Amino acid sequence: MLSELSKLSDYFESCFFEAVDINENRNKFYKTKYTSMLTKYLIRKDLTDGEVGCFASHYLLWQECLKLDEPIIVLEDDVVLQEHFEEGIKRIQDSGLHYVKLASTKIFAKNRGKTNRIISENFILSTKWVDGAQGYFITPHIAQIFLKYAKKWYRPVDNYMESYWIHNVPTITYDPRLIEDPPGFVPTTIDNRKKTKVPVILRITSEFCNLVVSIRRCIKACLLRVDI
Hints:
three-stranded antiparallel β-sheet, 228 residues, 8 strands, Spore Coat Polysaccharide Biosynthesis Protein SpsA, Chain A
């Protein structure tokens, strides 16, 4: 990352943030924010300690954004910055948008018209899951909203950030993407949940809960504003 960040001009100020290891004594408080039963109702299996730690890490960065009272860019520690990264960030700032993902794992040309809306040059609004939190631009305004609705944690953090039916923050991604996975990239193991048999009653409640979420998603998608 030092090599990647050296590509940037003095327009940017960078620093490294120590991610949260949820099993360290000083961080066990964050486990109290995790609501296991809600998670099981929605995705049938508990989040891993890695997923809870990841949520805690982003949560602390939203707090840091508020403390600084200025926009920040959050990057995972293994991304490759594209040549147009700096130009793209300046366009995001000029756009007046408050939250923009710098890449996503599920925006492709073949389905762009089905699950996404091109709202303007370089900006795509998604109403379906696009996944990933490899990098994003966020202002204190949105950081405060994310913190407000994150009283209980029951989804992976990237899913939470995309849950616009909860916090009314639209998922907008910059195109073409500003960051890429590194050569020889190994998919994350953070969500390697134990393979256990799911009780029938849990499957039933999960289907019902996800039906309710789908209805809320559809209603909110029709009312979604991009000027938040």
